Structure formats: structure tokens, C-alpha cells
């Protein structure tokens, strides 16, 4: 094994599971832990006002990242909660006049589970298939919409394979048919340009810890003049316009706000940096190894996500053998689940190919030397495993 | 905010302890998603499970019973939505995150009253439980957020269990101020929140017996054994555990806090014969005082104190901007005017003698000014 004293091991290449906290974000958060610790809902004293001001600034920063207005943003505990509110909340709000929801086979588990909960409650759900590239066919979406359809939910960037759906096209179809359009942008916010008006998006879920912000915070954008507004999942003090009760965490809100602002400022720089890393990883692996396949579209793809199949090399074995690199075989949520990835299944891989797949994720903090080191380790390890087979 | 602002609103939120910030900063820097199987993920998972064990040890329950949530409100909501519940019994002085069920529950809801000391009338509970089944849930808070009145949860839980009902307690205000022991309380479920004890906002827990069929409010990746999905707020949880581990230190400090609180009530009581302290006749939290200043709206009082650099509250912080009489004071027999003229003072780990002195002086000043103008 090559010794690299300048590299801190293990090298983290699992940016879809979670991203490191940007030190600039932590700096913004700290005062809310110490001096400005008030309850933002204490509307009668200075500590409360200060905390509230932090929350409201953060709301503006989140809104501004996606071309929305501050009052269209509610804070949640994370994208999972945002997705649950958007899908279940909206379906119930439109029920019984409408009872049909359309989503995609490759959505995140929390969207699929929310949809399954609706089915158990008697709603109709259509799961659109994807092609080998991982993309839906907009014409098929248009055909699936009926007068009973409330909502179309399509994720912006897939967490497992990184493909980018054509949100603008989907949004136009939904707008023309008077159906609400929700997108799970947990992987996309701050990574690619998103504009809720240009893309006709009515609801958007955002996660803090996928864009270099803190865990435990997310946001849901809800179009102000939308025809249907979601119902709350749970109730209490009536915070966030009654949609999401519970004391807000100003430190977390401020962290998400700062993360959004930094992402807005650094997005082009980040994207160029990550594209260069991605290109380097791909060319090194394809140059040195045979039997390598990139899963999902190569062109309509966020470059920070590379999902590969290495013929004959089991992903979990590879991940285990790569002791100095933190990568994953797929979604981090599926804790100890043994079923094969539903995303790779949907794009047409068979069980054997899925078993031999891993996801490599880069981000803002990844350095070129780390990519080179990781590529080298991957090549050596795969070669070793293949020799033993 | 100036350095000498006096913060006496600990029941709304408490300042975070430095040890908690240190621990959270460490965890945030370490990174990782607890569900990832690689080394970084395993490190995060170890932090998560160590936090669960710490809290379990401190509140005397098996760690598996602890479900981490986005806060106390969510914990209370999960408890109310346990699978199969058809009948809910709650007390008249519960927090908004419980009382909303009166509007939103499809089944039967009974509200039991409290006496003038804020204590539940046990016979009324027995009466409501006459038609109880295993689908009945009784929910009573351990210590009230507005008055600090402490209920005899053990006895109430026993009564509920004899009738075959489930029992939940919202122990959010109790934790850190009085001993909280899950097993000794004899309840089936208990809600906790981190930010009332010097931990961070945005994290809480529901402690629930394993036999209880939790219906997840938030579906997804199946974290928390399928009972609460979403990537865990790891730094928040670690900070919560750190704050819970410091609870014994809090409790030792409560003797001092009691003397400060009692001093407020003695001096104000001696100064103004027409004042009243809600809940003072019962066992209550050592840090809380609910003070009536007759004829002066609580909103006015809070504003006046704020101008003097003192932060107090007109009741629950949740009712943002809503000026309404305290439902707790009303339930204890207070008139509409009284319920509109009461403030809550709550002390905590950073409160000092001089803070209390400033408050007493400001209270007297406002009282005198209002007397003169009447």
C-alpha cells in the first residue's frame, strides 16, 4: 500500500450519505448555541427576537437559493420529514375530490414509503418507470395524469445514481394539467441551478446535511398561491404557519441558511471542481480496468455521484477491503437491508450486476490527491480480488 | 443583547451548556451518517448508540426504548398516534402539542379537570376510565410548563393500568429540575426534550415500552427501528446525551434555585397583598413562579420587563404572537382577567442572586406605576 503522509485517512467519498459540515457554516451556528440561545417563538423579549431574526434571515437565504420568497419556506427536521409533509399532507388535503398521486420507481425510500402509506389508506399511486439512463419519459407522465391526480413527485437528482431529471419539462406538464409538482431536491439543492418559477415547482424538499450544513434540519418550499396546501403531519404550538409545530432550532436554521448562501455563491466553483474530480476518477478507472460500467446517464448527471458496476467484484466485499476509503454500495438509509437496490433494479440491472455495484461520491472538500489515491486503491483492490476468483 | 440582560425564561428554552457545545462541535467535525456501513459511518453509529445508552442509564430505561425525534412536540404527537388508540384522556393543563388532539382526533376525547392547585382530580380520571379498554390512552404531564405543578404520575399511571389503559407522560419540563426515572414513574411512554435542560433545540425523544406499536409519523429509511425515519440529528443527539449526563449537577443546584424562587415570591407577596402565585400550594418545580399582577395585562408586563432588560414570559412560548388567556390559569379557577394578567418566571443553571434582585425591583417598579395610574 502506498504511504501518503499528506493524506488524512480514511478518505471520505460518500457525499450522498452525508456531507462534512463546512467550517463557515459552523461559525455561523456557534453564536446561536451560546449568546443567542433564545426560543424564537418567545415573541416578547430580546432573546426571542434575536433567535427569531436568525431564523428569518435563514429563511430568506434558503428561499433565495431556489428563487422563492421567504414566506414560502418552512423549516423541518430534514428532507425525510419535508417529503412526508409534501406527499401525505398534500394527498390528504385534496382528498376525497382527488385521490391519485404519481411518483417514480427510483425515488428515495421516504417518498416510496409515504406513497405506500397512502396506498394502504386507499389512495391510488402510479410509479413511473425509468429508462436505462434512469430518466422518466415526460410523455408517459402526461399520459398518467388523470382528473383525479393531485400530485406528481419526482426527485431532482437521484441519490444512488446521480441522474438529473428534466424538472422544467415535468413542471410544464404539471402546470398545464393543473397538478401540483413536488420535487425531492435533497441531493440537488445548492449543487445545480434550481428555480421554482422557471421549473414550475410547487413544493421542494431540501436537506441541510447534504449541502455541507447540519443534520437535523431541512426545509420545504410551498408555493404561496398553490391551489392545494398540505396538511400538517403533527400539531402543537402552531409554528411554521401551523404546518410544522415544535420549537425551531435557530442554530440549525442559521446553519441551513448559511449553507444555502454559501452554495449559491460557490456553486459554479464547486461544480467545476467536482466535475474535474469526477472526470479524473472515471478516466483512471476506465483506463486501468476492464469490465467497468457507469450506471445511469453519463450526460444528464451530477458529476459528484459515480455509480459503477465492476464485473465479478462484489460491492460489499470491495467496500470492506477498501479500508482507507469510506464509500458505500448505495443508499445509507437502508440500514442492513438485504434487498437489492430498487434504483439499480429499475434501470435494468440484474441481481448479479447490482451486487457488484458501488457508489463513489465527491464534494466541495474532496481534493484531487484524494481521488488519485482512492482510484489507485480501487484499481489495486479490484485487481487483487479478480486474481483470487 | 447586552451582557447584563437578565434571562428568566428557562421553561421556554435554557442556554446551552459549554460542555454540550464542545461535544456537539466534536461530533459535527467528525461527520458521518450513522446508517453508512464504512468506518466513518460506524463512528457516527457508535456516537448515536452511546448517546442512547447514556440517556437510558440516566433516566433508568433500556436504551432500546428511546426513539429520537425532532423535539418534544413530535414526541408527544407520536405518543398520541399509537396504533389502535380510540379513546384519549388528557388533563386540562397539558401543553398545546397534546391539547390539539381535542380538535383532531376521530375517536373519543375526555378532558379531566384540575383543582385550584393545578392537581388532577383522581376520581375524575377513575370515572373517565370506566369504559376504558386497551385502546384507551391517558396522557398527563409530569410538571406543568406554566406553573411547574408536579402531578403524582405513579399513582395516576397505576389507576390507568388497573383499567387496562396505556399511560403517557410529557416529562419535558420535569427533566433536569426533579428526578425523572422512567421505571419508577410506571408509565408506558414518556416525552423528553433537549433544549429545556441546556441541550440543543431540534432534538427530543419518546421513551416507549417495546410492546407499544408506534405508528411512524415520518416514513422513510427506517431509522430508529422503523419508528422515526430520517438521518439522525447526530450532533443534536450527542448534545442531548451530554446535557442529560449533566442532570445530576442540575439537580444538586436546585436547592439554590429554590431559595431564589422563594425569595421572589416572599418579597413580592409581602409588597403587594393582591398578588397571587399559581400552583404555590402544591408540589411544584423549584425554578418556576407564576405571578399575578392584577389589572396589568401580561403582554404589557412582559414588554415592561424587557425594557428593563429582563426576559420573562406570558406563559407558553409556543403561542407565538397570540394574546389569549392562559388555559392553565383558567383551568386552576382563575378568572379571565387573572388569566390575562399572569406572567411566568423560570430560573435555571446560570441564574444568580443579582438576577432575581433585578427582577424583584422591576416588578415593584411596574406595580407602583400601575397603582398610581389606576
Question: Sheet with the most strands of chain A?
Answer: 7 strands, mixed
Q: Rg of chain B from C-alpha positions?
A: 21 Å
End-to-end C-alpha gap of chain A: 21 Å
The structural class of chain A is alpha/beta
Helix count of chain A? Answer: 11
Name the beta content range of chain A.
5-15%
Question: Would you report the number of β strands of chain A?
Answer: 12
Task: Please provide a written account of the structure.
Chain A has 389 residues and is α/β, with parallel strands linked by helices. Chain A contains 11 helices and 12 strands. Chain A has helices at residues 23-33, 46-65, 79-94, 109-120, 138-144, 167-177, 250-288, 315-321, 342-346, 351-355, 368-388; strands at 11-12, 73-76, 100-104, 124-128, 149-153, 180-184, 203-207, 218-222, 292-294, 305-310, 325-326, 357-361. Chain A has a 7-stranded mixed beta sheet, sandwiched between helices. Chain A has a 3-stranded antiparallel beta sheet with strand order 9-10-12. A two-stranded parallel sheet of chain A has the order 1-11. In chain A, helix 7 crosses helix 11. The longest helix of chain A is centred in the C-terminal third of the chain and has 39 residues, at 250-288. Chain A is globular and about 70 Å long. The model of chain A has no long low-confidence stretch (mean pLDDT 93). In chain B, helix 2 runs parallel beside helix 9 (234-245) and helix 10 packs parallel to helix 14. Chain B is an alpha/beta fold and 374 residues long. In chain B, strand 5, helix 7 and strand 6 (166-170) form a beta-alpha-beta unit. Chain B is globular and about 70 Å long. Chain B contains 14 helices and 12 strands. Chain B has helices at residues 18-30, 39-59, 72-80, 96-99, 101-104, 122-128, 153-162, 182-185, 234-245, 247-271, 298-307, 327-331, 336-339, 353-373, and strands spanning 6-7, 66-69, 87-91, 108-112, 136-139, 166-170, 189-193, 204-208, 276-277, 288-292, 310-311, 342-346. In chain B, the strands form 3 sheets. A 7-stranded mixed beta sheet of chain B has the order 2-8-7-6-5-3-4, with helices on both faces. A 3-stranded antiparallel beta sheet of chain B has the order 9-10-12. In chain B, strands 1-11 form a two-stranded parallel sheet. The chains are: A alpha/beta (389), B alpha/beta (374). The interface between A and B is large, with 76 and 79 residues.
Amino acid at each position: 500500500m502506498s504511504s501518503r503522509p499528506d493524506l488524512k485517512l480514511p478518505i471520505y467519498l460518500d457525499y450522498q450519505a452525508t456531507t462534512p459540515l463546512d467550517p463557515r457554516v459552523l461559525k455561523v451556528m456557534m453564536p446561536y448555541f451560546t449568546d443567542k440561545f433564545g426560543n424564537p417563538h418567545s415573541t416578547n423579549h430580546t432573546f426571542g427576537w434575536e433567535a427569531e431574526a436568525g431564523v428569518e434571515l435563514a429563511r430568506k437565504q434558503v428561499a433565495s437559493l431556489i428563487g422563492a420568497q421567504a414566506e414560502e419556506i418552512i423549516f423541518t427536521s430534514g428532507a425525510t420529514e419535508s417529503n412526508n409533509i409534501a406527499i401525505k399532507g398534500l394527498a390528504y388535503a385534496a382528498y376525497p375530490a382527488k385521490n391519485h398521486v404519481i411518483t417514480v420507481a427510483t425515488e428515495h425510500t421516504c417518498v416510496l414509503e409515504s406513497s405506500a402509506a397512502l396506498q394502504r389508506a386507499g389512495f391510488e399511486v402510479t410509479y413511473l418507470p425509468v429508462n436505462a439512463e434512469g430518466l422518466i419519459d415526460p410523455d408517459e407522465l402526461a399520459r398518467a395524469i388523470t382528473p383525479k391526480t393531485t400530485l406528481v413527485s419526482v426527485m431532482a437528482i437521484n441519490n444512488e445514481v446521480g441522474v438529473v431529471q428534466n424538472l422544467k419539462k415535468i413542471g410544464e406538464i404539471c402546470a398545464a394539467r393543473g397538478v401540483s409538482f413536488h420535487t425531492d431536491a435533497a441531493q440537488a439543492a445548492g449543487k445545480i441551478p434550481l428555480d421554482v418559477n422557471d421549473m414550475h415547482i410547487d413544493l421542494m424538499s431540501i436537506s441541510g446535511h447534504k449541502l455541507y450544513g447540519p443534520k437535523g434540519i431541512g426545509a420545504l418550499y410551498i408555493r404561496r398561491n398553490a391551489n392545494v396546501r398540505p396538511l400538517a403531519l403533527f400539531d402543537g404550538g402552531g409554528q411554521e404557519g401551523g404546518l410544522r409545530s415544535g420549537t425551531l432550532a435557530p442554530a440549525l436554521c442559521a446553519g441551513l441558511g448559511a449553507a444555502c448562501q454559501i452554495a449559491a455563491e460557490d456553486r459554479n466553483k464547486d461544480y467545476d471542481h467536482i466535475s474535474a474530480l469526477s472526470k479524473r476518477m472515471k478516466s483512471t478507472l476506465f483506463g486501468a480496468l476492464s469490465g467497468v460500467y457507469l450506471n445511469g446517464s453519463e450526460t444528464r448527471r451530477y458529476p459528484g455521484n459515480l455509480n459503477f458496476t465492476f464485473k465479478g467484484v462484489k460491492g460489499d466485499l470491495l467496500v470492506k477491503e477498501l479500508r482507507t476509503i469510506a464509500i458505500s454500495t448505495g443508499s445509507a438509509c437502508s440500514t442492513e437491508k438485504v434487498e437489492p437496490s430498487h434504483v439499480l433494479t429499475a434501470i435494468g440491472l440484474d441481481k448479479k450486476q447490482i451486487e457488484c455495484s458501488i457508489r463513489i461520491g465527491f464534494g466541495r472538500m474532496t481534493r484531487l490527491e484524494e481521488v488519485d489515491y482512492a482510484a489507485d486503491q480501487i484499481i489495486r483492490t479490484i485487481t487483487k480480488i479478480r486474481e483470487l476468483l | 443583547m447586552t451582557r447584563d440582560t437578565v434571562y428568566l425564561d428557562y421553561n421556554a428554552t435554557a442556554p446551552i451548556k459549554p460542555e454540550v457545545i464542545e461535544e456537539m462541535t466534536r461530533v459535527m467535525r467528525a461527520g458521518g451518517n450513522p446508517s453508512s456501513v464504512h468506518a466513518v459511518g460506524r463512528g457516527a453509529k457508535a456516537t448515536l448508540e452511546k448517546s442512547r445508552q447514556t440517556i437510558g442509564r440516566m433516566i433508568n430505561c433500556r436504551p432500546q426504548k428511546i426513539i429520537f425525534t425532532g423535539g418534544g412536540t413530535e414526541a408527544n404527537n407520536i405518543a398520541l398516534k399509537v396504533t389502535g388508540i380510540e379513546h384519549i384522556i388528557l388533563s386540562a393543563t397539558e401543553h398545546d402539542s397534546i391539547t390539539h388532539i381535542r380538535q383532531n382526533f376521530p375517536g373519543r376525547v375526555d378532558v379531566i379537570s384540575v383543582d385550584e392547585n393545578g392537581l388532577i382530580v383522581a376520581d375524575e380520571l377513575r370515572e373517565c376510565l370506566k369504559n376504558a379498554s386497551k385502546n384507551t390512552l391517558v396522557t398527563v404531564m409530569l410538571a406543568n410548563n406554566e406553573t411547574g405543578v408536579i402531578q403524582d404520575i405513579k399513582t395516576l399511571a397505576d389507576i390507568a393500568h388497573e383499567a387496562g389503559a396505556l399511560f403517557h407522560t410529557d416529562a419535558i419540563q420535569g427533566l433536569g429540575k426533579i428526578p425523572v426515572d422512567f421505571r419508577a414513574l410506571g408509565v408506558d411512554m414518556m416525552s423528553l426534550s433537549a433544549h429545556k435542560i441546556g441541550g440543543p433545540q431540534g432534538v427530543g425523544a419518546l421513551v416507549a415500552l417495546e410492546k407499544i406499536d408506534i405508528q411512524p409519523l415520518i416514513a422513510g429509511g427506517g431509522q430508529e427501528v422503523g419508528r422515526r425515519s430520517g438521518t439522525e440529528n447526530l450532533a443534536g443527539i450527542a448534545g442531548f446525551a451530554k446535557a442529560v449526563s449533566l442532570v445530576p449537577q442540575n439537580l444538586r443546584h436546585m436547592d439554590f434555585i429554590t431559595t431564589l424562587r422563594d425569595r421572589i415570591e416572599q418579597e413580592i407577596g409581602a409588597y403587594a397583598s393582591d398578588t397571587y402565585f399559581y400552583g404555590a400550594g402544591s408540589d411544584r418545580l423549584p425554578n418556576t413562579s407564576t405571578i399575578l399582577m392584577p389589572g396589568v395585562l401580561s403582554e404589557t408586563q412582559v414588554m415592561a420587563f424587557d425594557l428593563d432588560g429582563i426576559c420573562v414570559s406570558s406563559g407558553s412560548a409556543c403561542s407565538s404572537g397570540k394574546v389569549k388567556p392562559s388555559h392553565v390559569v383558567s383551568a386552576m379557577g382563575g378568572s379571565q382577567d387573572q388569566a390575562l394578567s399572569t406572567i411566568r418566571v423560570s430560573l435555571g443553571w446560570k441564574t444568580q442572586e443579582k438576577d432575581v434582585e433585578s427582577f424583584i425591583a422591576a416588578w415593584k417598579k411596574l406595580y407602583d406605576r400601575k397603582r398610581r395610574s389606576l
